[in-house]
Specification:
Blueprint (H helix, E strand, L loop, with lengths): L18 H9 L2 H5 L4 H11 L16 H13 L3 H17 L3 H17 L6 H4 L3 H29 L5 H8 L4 H10 L17 E2 L8 E2 L2 H11 L8 H4 L4 E2 L9 E4 L10 E5 L4 E4 L8 E4 L5 E6 L2 E3 L2 E3 L1
Antiparallel strand pairs: 1-2, 3-8, 4-5, 4-8, 5-6, 6-7, 9-10
Helix pairs in contact: 1-5, 3-5, 3-8, 4-5, 4-8, 5-8, 6-8, 10-11
Organism: Planobispora takensis
GO molecular function: cysteine-type peptidase activity
Family: Belongs to the peptidase C40 family.
């Protein structure tokens, strides 16, 4: 689940099907650990759930909308609502990134399915019809289908990073830093609509929930896109990007990621922008707005992170 501000800081929402997975995530290191894997590693972990290799027969063209495609195809086929499907995607991705065994996820989901089927007012006709010995098979069917789709999508996203355009190569040859290349990419997106859950390494896309009808970027989708154009693979969500680079202790430079905590009741970063200078940033602020230039110093500012392109043990900027 692509999450931003407010209650969205929590890894799993409250639809019931993945409450156990969310609890396991908390017991094994919390939300920062859950998304600390780099994109290539996360793709490998999720693909292992699906019994596939990330490189085996994949079409690396990223779907225009990862979540929208899944909701329209996988949800009805699995007998799930859009909310349940989105929640399960989040739970499976989280569990895989934490190294939680697939069998544990299936067992947890089977218990949740049984509980949901017997809850008054929340019974699923398909789930209710299943005898006890088939809840696990039903759970396995769901996990396999979602993991397989996630494997395809994450592999496609990894394929978008590290592919430098001719313009970017020329910029590097002329002495520009990767941060400056990322900034140029972000500046080209000025005026693109904000879309909650939208955008990523491949560019603007339709979001989820209240962003489902808008093609654009949310905050972390924009920063992931900008740095992908500079050949650096960032994680997709804000709180993962906070842990993907070095903290800036000196002057903020173009391309640095600047982070905010807009809800002190749930500590941690929930918004990110991309520095245009030490005082201004390129920002995808909120629903109803567009990508624009705004001041860095504002309420909730936490600090800045400088991503780096790593080759072996050497980081280049």
């Amino acid at each position: 689940m692509i999450v931003e501000a407010g209650a969205g800081k929590v890894i799993a929402a409250g639809y019931g099907l993945v409450s156990g997975i969310a609890l396991l995530a908390g017991m094994t290191g919390g939300r920062h650990a859950a998304v600390s894997a780099d994109p290539a590693q996360l793709a490998e972990l999720v693909c292992s759930y699906a019994g596939r290799s990330p490189a085996a027969g994949e079409n690396t063209k990223r779907p225009e909308s990862r979540v929208k495609t899944d909701v329209s195809r996988s949800g009805p086929e699995l007998g799930l609502s859009a909310a349940q499907l989105d929640d399960l995607r989040s739970g499976i991705e989280t569990a895989a990134s934490l190294g939680i065994p697939k069998d544990t996820v299936i067992a947890d989901l089977a218990v949740s399915l049984k509980s949901e089927s017997s809850a008054e007012g929340h019974a699923s006709p398909r789930a209710t019809a299943l005898p006890d010995d088939r809840f696990r098979k039903r759970a396995e069917e769901i996990v396999n289908a979602i993991a397989s789709r996630l494997c395809t999508e994450l592999t496609a996203e990894v394929g978008q990073a590290g592919e430098l355009s001719t313009e970017a190569l020329e910029a590097l040859a002329s002495g520009s830093s990767r941060g400056e290349i990322a900034l140029r990419a972000a500046l080209k997106m000025l005026g693109v609509p904000y879309s909650w859950g939208g955008g990523g390494a491949a560019g603007p896309s339709y979001g989820i929930q209240h962003g489902a009808g808008t093609k654009g970027f949310d905050c972390s989708g924009l920063t992931q896109y900008a740095w992908a154009r500079a050949g650096v693979a960032l994680p997709r969500v804000t709180y993962a990007q906070w842990n993907h680079g070095s903290r800036v202790s000196d002057r903020i430079q173009p391309g640095d990621l600047v982070f905010y905590d807009t809800n002190p009741q749930i500590p941690g970063p929930d918004h990110v922008g991309l520095a245009a200078s030490d005082t201004q940033m390129v920002n995808a602020p909120h629903t109803g707005a567009v990508v624009r230039i705004e001041p860095i110093r504002r309420h909730g500012f936490m600090g800045a992170v400088r991503p780096g392109w790593k080759k072996g043990r050497i980081a280049f900027r």
